[in-house]
Each structure stands twice: as structure tokens, then as C-alpha cells.
Amino acid sequence: MSRPARVIAILAALLAGTAYAVNDHAEIQHLLSTIGSSGCTFIRNGQDHPAEEAEDHLRMKYRRAGTRITTAEAFIERLASKSSWTGRPYLIRCGADAAVPSANWLTNRLDQFRTARSGT
Q1: Distance CA 43, CA 91 (A)
Q2: Could you identify which of 29, 49, 70, 100 might form a hypothetical disulfide with 42, taking C-beta atoms 3.0 to 4.6 angstroms apart as the criterion?
Q3: Which domain holds residue 106?
Q4: Would you call 85 helix, strand, or coil by DSSP?
Q5: For the whole model, what pTM was predicted?
């Protein structure tokens, strides 16, 4: 491969990676906003927290994680599904519905977001 072709291939790979990272960040931001505007109760270490507090808490964890979290799936699995201190799972209770693991709730919202975005 000629040098210009290699440079073009490298730039294309870098740009593709950047677009992928932007999409993942957008998905994580969507999940955070969805939590905050849900009106649901977030249960962390046995304590009820309003949705806005849950969003703030998870934003703080995401911010502190920095570049270690690169996908929406990693965000859900490593930051938004359990307490990093106690290991207890986070739960989300919406209205009179039973509380569900936050990982399930967030994965469902991520699937809905991707489906709506793809138009299928």
C-alpha cells in the first residue's frame, strides 16, 4: 500500500472510531436524561432516591470513570447496575410497578432508543 493510501486508511479508521465514540456518548447521555425525567424511584443501597438524584449520581460516576467507559453497555454494566461500594444492585421502581434491576430497565430503554433511531 502506498504511503498516501496508508494515511487515508488511518484517517478513515480514526474518523470511524470518533463517530462510534460520539454515538456511544449520545446513547449514554440519553440514558442519563431518561432516568432523570422518568419520575421513577431509584433504589440505591436500600434507600429511595428521586429520579433527578439518580441522574446526578450516575453522571458523577460516568464523569469520574472518564475514558474507561466507552459504550452504553459498559456504562450500564459497570456504573449503572450496582453500587461500587457495596455491590448491591440498583433498582428502579416506576409508579405502582414492582422494582426492577436498573440494568434491565436501562437495557430496555437503550434498545428502544436504538430502534427509534434506526427507524425500524
Answers
A1: 5
A2: 49
A3: 3-118
A4: coil
A5: 0.79
